[in-house]
Amino acid sequence: MRPDGGAWRTGSSSAPARTDEVPERLRAIAVIPARYASSRLPGKPLLAETGRPLIHHVVEQVRQARRLAAVLVATDDPRIARACAPLGIEAVMTPVDCPSGTDRVACVARARLSPDDLVINVQGDEPELPPAWIDTLIALMAEDDAPLGTLAARSHDAQSFHSPHAVKAVADARGRALYFSRAPIPYDRETGGMPRDGFLHHIGIYAYRQRALLALAGLPPSPLEQLERLEQLRALERGFAIRVGIVQGPVPGGIDTPEDYAAFVRRMRQARGASADSG
């Protein structure tokens, strides 16, 4: 249900989407926000120690998803736009002063997408996000009428549970989000910490109905959002339902610091060496 009591018109929710297709009316477009002026890692999308710019790695991962109708890059810098050209990916220019990646994606959705489109926000610093997870999220939204969707993976990692850098999710019996937090939640009083069955480690990929995305982008930051520095809390505080899909496997880390990028480069080189050895 929308916050105004109406229904989000996304097709029937009586049966799940088939594994090999998405309902024709649900056109899913991935938008990858990529800005140049990262405070901790300036020029991040163009770092190329692997031999290719980071934005290429992200785009090529996203392109492997089978359920996407198109992939766009939302950027504030012509250098990033030019870097996308060899891949045949359209880069849409957005204002430099967009306060967040979500606002940057909303600029593209407002200008280029239709009210019935499903917008998939894939972070521009997530080069190792499994493409199958994108397909899972799209299929989830095809069978649910929630205005927003996201993913989480069940984890038993105690370090992540207590780390403020790992966002935790709590959902109800229908798979709708109850809360997201940097704090260790839910807290098990008997064990004095992490529940025996682990916790839901949130994954920073979002699906928005275009109308919901534009509505949220037009709202000011909410109190909980400002406290936790989590944009999805704006949606919860305003009454928007968020569907949480559960996927299997470790949560890939984003690239926020020089150390993160150096580790990614090492993994790429190791993978390249293993591929050469097997060939």
Give a structural overview:
- It contains nine helices and nine strands.
- With 279 residues, the protein is an alpha/beta fold.
- The chain has one domain: Spore Coat Polysaccharide Biosynthesis Protein SpsA, Chain A (Alpha-Beta Complex), CATH 3.90.550.
- Strands 1, 2, 3, 4, 5, 6, 7, 8 and 9 form a nine-stranded mixed sheet that branches.
- Strand 1, helix 1 (54-63) and strand 2 (70-75) form a beta-alpha-beta unit.
- Helix 3 (101-112) packs across helix 6 (210-217).
- The chain is globular.
Low-confidence stretches: 1-23
Structural class by SSE content: alpha/beta
End-to-end distance: 53 Å
**Proportion in helices:** 25-40%
Number of strands: 9
What is the count of structural domains? Answer: 1
CATH homology-level superfamily: Spore Coat Polysaccharide Biosynthesis Protein SpsA, Chain A
List the total number of helices: 9
Largest sheet properties: 9 strands, mixed
Query: What integer value in Å does the Rg equal?
Result: 19 Å
